[in-house]
Write a structure and sequence with these properties.
This protein has twelve helices and no strands. The chain is an all-alpha fold. The longest helix has 30 residues.
C-alpha cells in the first residue's frame, strides 16, 4: 500500500511541476489585468531554449545543473512575452488575439531553429543532464511519510510549491502586490493614486513569461528529455485552466495544478494500480483533458477574475 501511494505521489509531482510554474505566471499576468492565453507558446519557447542550451553546453564540455537551463528558459520566456506586453499595453490589441499569436508562432519558430541547429532534424537529441528523481536528506528516512513524499520524488515540484507560497505573500502582503492587484481591478483609480499602470501591467506579463518559460524548461528536462512539436502538447492551456480553477490565487492555482498533474500521472502509472489497471489506456490518456473541461464547466464558471481583466487602459481617459 505504501509503495503504491509513493508511486502515485511521485508521479503526480513530476507531472504537476511544469503546471505549477506556468499557472503562477498566469496569476501574475491576470492580476495585472492582462489575459495571457499565450502561456502555451511561452512554455514551448522555454522548453526549446532550455534543451538547446543544455545540449550545447554539454557539447562544449560544461557540466551544469538543469536549474541553470530552467533559468535560461525563464529569461527567454520573459523576452518572448514582451511581444504580448507591447501588443496589449501600448498597441491596445485584443488580449486573446495577441496571446493566440504567441501560440501560433512559437512552435514553427522553435522547430525552424531546431532544424537549423540539428542538421535538418525536427527534434533535438536526448539530454543527459536532467532532473530525475530526488531524495531529500533526512526527510527521506522518516518512516512511511518520508517514503511517500520525500523519497524518489520531484524537486522542481517542491520548488514550485515554495514559489506558490512566496507568490501568495508577494501578491497579497507587499506594496508591489497591492499595486499589481489595483491595476487589475481599477486602473483609472490606481493611476490617480500615482501608480504607473503601464509599468505594473508590463511587470505582470513579464513575470508570466518568466514562470511560463521555467515551466516549459522543467517539463522538457524532467519528462520529455528533448524538444519536439509534441513536447508541450496543451500543457500551457492546462496551466491556464489551473489558474482559473484556482481562482487567480497562487495557492489555489498550485493545488489545481497538482490535481491536474495527478490526472496526467494516471496514464503513466495506472497499469500498476489495482482497479485502475483494468481501465483501457486510451481512456487514461484523455482523462486529464476531460477532467480539465469538467472542472472548468462546474467550478470555473463562478470564478471571478480581476474586474479590469482583459480591458485596455488608455491613460488619457
Amino acid at each position: 500500500m505504501v509503495n503504491t501511494l509513493a508511486l502515485i505521489v511521485s508521479s503526480t509531482l513530476v507531472y504537476s511541476a511544469p503546471l505549477i510554474f506556468t499557472a503562477l505566471g498566469g496569476v501574475y499576468s491576470e492580476r495585472s489585468g492582462i489575459v495571457n492565453v499565450g502561456l502555451e507558446g511561452i512554455m514551448v519557447i522555454g522548453a526549446f531554449s532550455a534543451v538547446v542550451t543544455n545540449l550545447l553546453s554539454e557539447a562544449a564540455g560544461y557540466s551544469l545543473s538543469p536549474w541553470v537551463f530552467v533559468l535560461v528558459g525563464g529569461v527567454v520566456g520573459m523576452i518572448f512575452s514582451l511581444m504580448h506586453a507591447v501588443a496589449t499595453v501600448h498597441l491596445r490589441a485584443d488580449h486573446i488575439i495577441s496571446g493566440t499569436v504567441l501560440n501560433l508562432i512559437s512552435i514553427p519558430l522553435a522547430i525552424f531553429l531546431t532544424r537549423v541547429i540539428f542538421d535538418g532534424r525536427g527534434q533535438t537529441d536526448i539530454i543527459s543532464k536532467s532532473f530525475g528523481y530526488y531524495n531529500f536528506p533526512v526527510l527521506a528516512n522518516i518512516p512511511v511519510i518520508g517514503q511517500i513524499f520525500f523519497r524518489q520524488t520531484s524537486l522542481p515540484a517542491y520548488v514550485g510549491i515554495l514559489l506558490a507560497v512566496v507568490s501568495y505573500f508577494v501578491i497579497f502582503k507587499t506594496k508591489f502586490g497591492l499595486r499589481l492587484r489595483s491595476v487589475g481591478e481599477n486602473p483609472q483609480a490606481a493611476d490617480t493614486l500615482g501608480i504607473n499602470v503601464y509599468l505594473m501591467r508590463y511587470s505582470g506579463v513579464i513575470l508570466s513569461g518568466l514562470f511560463g518559460g521555467m515551466g516549459g524548461a522543467v517539463l522538457a528536462q524532467s519528462i520529455s528529455l528533448n524538444f519536439s512539436t509534441s513536447t508541450i502538447a496543451g500543457q500551457g492551456f492546462m496551466s491556464m485552466a489551473a489558474m482559473i480553477f484556482g481562482r487567480h490565487n497562487p495557492i489555489g492555482a498550485m493545488a489545481a495544478a497538482i490535481f491536474f498533474g495527478f490526472a496526467q500521472s494516471l496514464a503513466v502509472v495506472g497499469s500498476q494500480i489495482p482497479v485502475i489497471s483494468e481501465i483501457p489506456s486510451v481512456y487514461l490518456q484523455i482523462a486529464p483533458y476531460v477532467i480539465t473541461i469538467i472542472a472548468l464547466v462546474f467550478f470555473g464558471r463562478n470564478a471571478q477574475g480581476p474586474a479590469a481583466n482583459g480591458t485596455t487602459y488608455v491613460k488619457t481617459k
